[in-house]
Amino acid sequence: MASSHAASPPSAGDVLQLLIRTTHRLHTQFEDHLSSLGIPAYLTGPRVRVLIAIEEAGTIRMSELAQKLGIKARTVTQFVDALEQEKMLTRTSDPDDRRATFLQLTEIAPALITKARAAMSLASEQVLQDLPPEGRRQLLNLLLTL
Fold this sequence. Notes:
Layout: H1 2-7, H2 12-36, H3 45-57, E1 59-61, H4 62-69, H5 73-85, E2 89-94, E3 97-105, H6 109-127, H7 133-145
Antiparallel strand pairs: 1-3, 2-3
Helix pairs in contact: 2-6, 3-6, 4-5
């Protein structure tokens, strides 16, 4: 059976299902590595990316953050709610537009962001340690094609 499977190209469904399973497994490994490196469980990779975007902007509207990250406004709201609860950021009203909300980091956030960035880099290396540089290049090119 393996020989007939190898002779025919895989279906799009088979490839996509394997990609989804693999992505889930890699994400779990990545989060486990972050935890083992002392990053609090509430500070997931996506939440760190939110904090980094706010850090780079200084102050940013929630709508601008959603656009910058390419995610839906309600997703930003979920991230912000969680990060505000952990005292990593604050919301302030826009004096010029009562519907808009500005986000800003708290004083405790920058040090944790720095630690999380270093841990994310190390965790990434650990997750992809078995993939040689040329394999990484090929994978990157395939993902960019998708």
